[in-house]
Design goal:
heterodimer; A: mainly beta; 4-stranded antiparallel sheet; globular; B: mainly beta; 7-stranded mixed sheet; 11 strands; about 50% strand
């Protein structure tokens, strides 16, 4: 079973920041938090990952709490093209091929 | 680079038939993966490979086989198709233990 908990759906107004929460209370010290998204019918797309520190790239920011039991993915200026299912994933183990266990994800709807 | 390519895009199989789903990547990635996604569900890992000649089972390997004779190719074999294998199949590759790059998927229906 997936080791993360996400809300099943969220709405966001176009141009506003989308903040997607994720709980991973049983995360181990050497496990990373990964975020992927899947736009309808397409293969998943990598967004960002982090271990302890907050991370930012051209797509998003990842905020991880100090106790690492939860995180938030931030899309700073959501567009209609960001409508997708967003998966928060805790990577299972080290040196095991980087296996990812996908849960149900959060379906984000960006509205005009 | 073409990235990760999968063939065919769509396929309909009769129960008991066999087929091979093809996956190829041109990024020289060591790690490759096969996932399946049932309607309304997240992806489940079927098999993965950390390099040519090395494969291992994921969450849902029953009914499938894989081989990895080259770095580029990672075919998935269905020997006796069953309706429960109706799904969308995604192949992915990764340079090591970083982000995974996914193909466009193969939509398989078994009737």
């Amino acid at each position: 079973d997936a080791k993360t908990t996400q809300p099943p759906s969220m709405d966001c107004a176009e141009g506003r920041a989308a903040n997607l929460p994720c709980n991973h209370s049983t995360i181990s010290g050497n496990e990373y938090v990964y975020w992927y998204r899947q736009i309808h019918s397409q293969g998943p797309q990598y967004i960002i990952h982090g271990l302890k520190n907050n991370e930012t790239n051209e797509m998003a920011s990842l905020i991880i709490t100090e106790d690492r039991k939860s995180s938030t993915l931030i899309l700073p200026h959501a567009t209609l093209r960001d409508t997708a299912v967003y998966y928060c994933i805790v990577r299972v183990g080290n040196n095991q091929g980087g296996k990812l266990i996908f849960g149900q994800g959060t379906e984000l709807s960006v509205k005009p | 680079n073409a990235g990760v390519t999968q063939t065919p895009k769509f396929r309909i199989l009769k129960i008991g038939q066999s087929m091979t789903l093809q996956c190829a990547q041109d990024m020289n990635h060591n790690y490759m993966y096969w996932y399946r996604q049932d309607p309304g569900m997240g992806l489940k890992l079927i098999y993965y490979s950390v390099g040519a000649g090395i494969t291992d089972k994921g969450e849902v390997p029953n009914g499938y086989n894989v081989s990895r004779s080259t770095t580029e190719d990672f075919p998935l074999r269905l020997e006796l198709a069953a309706p429960s294998q109706t799904s969308v199949y995604f192949c992915a590759s990764s340079p090591r233990d970083h982000e995974q790059y996914f193909g466009p998927g193969t939509r398989l229906t078994v009737t």
